[in-house]
Fold this protein.
Amino acid sequence: MRRKILGATVLAATLFALGAVQPAMEQDSFRIADPSVLAGRTGERSLTTTIEQLERRLHAVPSDWRAAAALGLALVQEARITADPRHYTRAEAALRRSLSLRPGNFDAVVGVGSLALARHDFKEALEWGRRALATNPHGVAGYGVVGDALVELGRYREGFSAFQRMADIRPGLLAYARASYARELQGDVNGARRLMRMAEEAAGSPEDAAWAAFELGELSWSVGQVDAAEAAFRRAARLSPSYLPPRAGLAKVSWARGRIGEAIRSYRRVVDRYPAPDRVAALGDLYTAAGRADLAADQYALVRVEQGLMREEGVDVDLELSLFDADHGRPRAALRAARAAWSKRRSVHAADALAWALHRNGRDDQAARLARRALRLGTRNALFLYHAAMIELRLGDEGRARHLLSTALRTNPHFSIRYAAVARRTLARLEEAA
């Protein structure tokens, strides 16, 4: 169902009333992309059929540049839905073919930019997004690519301006979703949820609505509202049964309620079909919490296999790899990866990853500076707060550590399978000693 919420003029004035943003420095990491790419607008089975139809069309009419561009975008969707990065190479070939047949065509240029976003090559994405806007200054998709890239590079003011331009041109699901992320980054989770509800209402298909509902669940989860998160995850699962992230969300809910066996079974069903590294790592952490170190080790090994495959297919996983290595006994490798990520993207997520890697290597003076930069936008991220707390504790500032831990646990008492219990124990010890 599509419902007009605000007039275009009012919307332009309200979506990004965000306050001043200080000079940038820098999810789950890259988070924002077109919902149709994340959720799969046509559903997993229909998307496979669409790809097959487009391939047959190109076999019959090799000069069809539009079909080649559509195939490239469909393959980007397929890679995200299946967590199989091998589709990215096929997507690139299709998009380059479209450009060779019709140089500079908007669909393919946007497609190459979207592919670069998916591979976490944000400088490349920015270049292709700007090319798209040079071709079509009113192309909403081009502003989406540009804005996404700028935000991931830590150039927040410019990125939010690109999102605002999207809202000016065509208010709807894509603009609302990006406005929601901008609010979330700056700590306004209630505003972020309001905008994501608008995105869900503006969705043109059950799959798009499922994506928005899942993101609503994640926003509720991020501030510890487990009941609201569960309701949103269940709604997303009903809207699109083949869309697997809501099932992972429900697994988190089971863990938060102390049903660890149920959570493990749910995560196993997800990773059997959707072995994304973050889901596999979560399953490993659940096995660790359950005392099954052998099964946890198997999952952690699979994470490294998945990350290696992604790198082979051109995906930059330095940020994600740094966090994983820092948490799983490879501090030097974590620091190398975090420094590589920081050299390419000065986002709050990269700052947090580098701070944590420095901490794991005993370099807490440097880590503290990066941890403060990670929090500079006011993002209500309990893991950022936990990382900053443990760095301050190592430096001997127990008062500051106590404040940060308390804030982290008030924000989301279930912020991490691995660290939530550690945070509670550490805070109790500090409060007893105070």
